[in-house]
What does this fold into?
Amino acid sequence: IVWDREQGWHDAEVLPYGPIPMDPASSVLHYGQEIFEGLKAYRHPNGDIVTFRPEANAQRLNESAARLALPELPVELFVQAIRELVTVDADWVPSGHDQSLYLRPFMIADESFLGVRAAERARFMVIASPAGPYFTGGVKPVSIWLSGEHARAGRGGTGAAKCGGNYASSLLPTRIAAQHGCAQVLFTDSATEDTIDELGGMNLFLVHRDGRLVTPELNGNILDGITRKSLIRLAQDRGLTVEERKVTVGEWRAGAADGSITEAFACGTAAVITPIGQLKSEQGVLVDFGDRAPGELTMSLRDELTGIQFGTVADRFGWVERIVTA
Ligand code: PMP
It folds into this structure.
């Protein structure tokens, strides 16, 4: 679907997957005026196909659009695009727990000019790809790398938007993390270097021995993760306290050392919940939960959320949106 200043959004169509025409002077190629989303379609045991909280993705896309000077996309158009694509691609939605059809909605500025200003023309597209289980052979704790050198986004920057530029800046630190055997990079606030923001592609939670959950507050620098939001709700519904506040690396280290912090996990659409076993940096191992199996609370929240998504646990918050009825 195409947008321009005169006509607004128009010319929606579903096309077979393939290359798209692109002018070499298209503004997205030069100034990175681009945003995206990520969500999944799941097949329930009865054959129905559903998505999870697509309106939340639509809202977040519009918050990203506002920051990147891109046009607003009505929530209904976003959801309709998802519905039409998943309906056409229904045969590509795998069955089985931990399998899904990953959906990638994105919006690009697409006006041809040289000169730095917001474009007057944009395109919104959705592509899809089947996704297998994130973990093969069971969920295992991962190591993560504290980047002492690189920030993902700075105060007043685009950290809260889901825009390509944030990921461009995280590619090098992510490669460095991988060279140290770590699955993800942990970014701290660029100003204080000790306040935890988030991981390269996931939000972070710490679990206290008394069942309290602590997660970095939405400080304008981190993504308002839909998995994060959903887990906060599930935990509160169990009567657990969830503290959204400033969290430091120092607090995590001290809590892990004295046994008051017993679990840590990362969360996002791709892996749902990933237990964290170790935090490492140039200074060596900062936190080590040892050879312990994934934490109990971590795994029970994971089971509840994936159960809702895959249709084996009652959807008591109305998060699941049916697209195809078997
Ligand atoms: N932070 C970043 C930087 C991400 O890329 C993602 C994945 N979209 C998340 C957090 C988690 O967000 P969500 O739960 O909506 O997938």
